[in-house]
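Field reference: sequence -> structure
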Amino acid sequence: DIGDALPAGSSTQSGGVWTVVGGGTDIWGSADSFHFAHQDLNGDGEIVARVTGVQATDPWAKAGVMIRETTAANSRHALVAVTAGQGVAFQRRLTTGGGSVHTAGSLVAAPRWVRLVRQGNLFSGYESSDGVNWTLVNTHTIIMPASVRLGLGVTSHRNGTACTATFDNVRITLAPTGAG
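Structure field:
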């Protein structure tokens, strides 16, 4: 869990389906509160997933793919999420402890594919109805070190209430390390 997220979150994977449960107030503002199932990423890469469901604990309950500088609540990050009632969002924090920035994507509900690409300090968020044809939501420069975390994030937007989200087709692609 990131921040003061309640109740404690969890993540499980079975048969290619990820079930992520997160509480928390939001992934927004100057500090976040949510559950983050993550792994390390060193350098460039991308994460793709289809959000198959987001429990409607709040219209702004979110489930998506994230690249995050650290696990601190006020960390710089980029997130492409499907919300329970506000469509797709590309959200990011450009400076540690700074305010969040939002770009709205399509006003659609799950299921929806989301994709986040890191190329140096350039972060691009995409959405898709089929996982083949992608629409760019936005691109932003966010200064981050080479070593970051990437994974799946879920917030209920109502601390004390758990939100269950499901993902499938989760794929992480690392950038090539160069010709040998």
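Note: The two ends are 39 Å apart (CA to CA).
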